[in-house]
């Protein structure tokens, strides 16, 4: 049984299988490396997205994201074997926090939603670039 | 090596030479539009700019926009979240210079970021006998509004690449600054 909060860590078998921005100094793998000091940066223009594939299908009750300067965020989930057929899970406007990492808790519209893949779409931001430090999914 | 992407709005009054500058820059000076054809929607042209002394580059998505007001409602919707801004006027046309304030306001209203790298371009310097806007005056206006000023002659292939290279550099520096900020937050 996977411990709560571990779902989105690479140590738990999760992988980032797509990211629309890639500065090799700040790759999307940094989101799930368990290190709070590393991050993924977007490199210009919106929307931007990344997809995390979990090690199996899990029931998710809460998603926590540590980020900077993200404004509109949409999360979609899929239970397919392949990362297709995504369904909207939740959408939120994050508040503007200057010079701090913003920690946001998102509750899926259906609590206890099942997911094998999580897709994070950053629709807009408070700046030209955003950073995502970590994402965790709690069962 | 990193690759950035920026949406670059190219705007200004009609027939000041926006499309010609965009075409020249994206074709490395080999494609000069001899005949006038009005731009009625947004023409997007992608051009990669290398940042000197780094392995990094920027893909500039140049959004060549119509100058005629009749098309503005449709096109300005597509200006959302601009990365940088190239404002063009014609140095032989006083009215096109006066319109710059309006264009700047319009584009700045589309960004939610504190900074928007922008350049002011006085085009058609080859028509020196018909010049109506003083270089110093344009320069002062640019500085006052936080833009970098360039004079170009698309016809004589003069300086056409400089405004875009300047924008690319500013955008790149902004990225570096932001990444340093992100690092300092942890």
TrEMBL record, chain A:
GO BP terms, alphabetized: intraciliary transport
A GO term from the CC aspect: cilium
Bilayer-spanning residue ranges: 93-110
Official protein name in the record: Intraflagellar transport protein 25 homolog
Taxonomic source organism: Leptobrachium leishanense
Keyword Membrane attached: yes
Top-level taxon: Eukaryota
Keywords, comma-separated and alphabetical: Membrane, Transmembrane, Transmembrane helix
From TrEMBL, chain B:
Molecular function GO terms recorded: GTP binding; GTPase activity
Residues annotated as transmembrane: none
SMART domains cross-referenced by the UniProt entry: RAB, RAS, RHO
Family annotation (InterPro entries): P-loop_NTPase, Rab_GTPases_membrane_traffic, Small_GTP-bd, Small_GTPase
Protein name in UniProt: Intraflagellar transport 27
Gene Ontology CC annotations of this record: intraciliary transport particle; motile cilium
UniProt keyword list: Cell projection, Cilium, Flagellum, GTP-binding, Nucleotide-binding
Superkingdom as given in the UniProt entry: Eukaryota
